Amino acid sequence: MTPPSHTAADLRLRGQAGPLRARLHRPIEPDGHPLLVLFPAGSIDRADRLCQGLCLRAGLMVIAASHRRLPAGLHDGVMVVEWSAEHATELGADPNRLLIGGEGIGGSLATSVAMHAREQHWPVLAGPLLINPDSGTLQGALSPPGLAPTIAITSGDSHYDDLLHAALFLTGRTSSLAGRSRPPPIP
Asked: What is an example of a Pfam family matching this protein (predicted)?
C-alpha cells in the first residue's frame, strides 16, 4: 500500500453569519509550504480534487473555505484570510508566502479580499489566482495598482498544468517551471 502524500482535515472557522466550513490540505513533507486560501465555486467537497493536485504537484498547503456571495461574502473572505495569516506558522505553512485564489464566483471574492488587503495596508498577498473567472471578475482583477499580479486560468482541467505553473510562479518557485520565467499568459 502506498503511504499517503498529503492529509486533509476539516475546519470550522468563525464567520460573521455563523461558522464557515473549511478543509485544510497539507503535504506530508516538512513544514514551510506556501499557503493558498482558495474560495471554490461550489462546495469545499467539490474542490477536493483541485486542492489535492495543488497540494501534491505544486507543494502548496491549501485551505478551501466556504463563503457567501458578495457583498456579504467579503466579510467571510477577510475573516478566513486573517485567520490563515494568524495561524500559518502553527499549521506548518510559511507565513511570508500567503496566496489567495478563487474558482468561478470564488474568484470575485478572492479579488475583493485582495483589494481589501491593499486598502488596509496588509502585507501583499500573492495572487489572486483565478480559476475559470467570470468576465466581470477578470476585468476588475487585471493587476490594479498595488495588487500582486493576477493570474487567470480558464477551461478547467485542460489547463491544469498551467494552473500548477501559475501557483509555482506566484510562490517564487519558478525553477520548477522547466525554464519558464513568467506565468502563462492571461487568455
From this structure: Abhydrolase_3
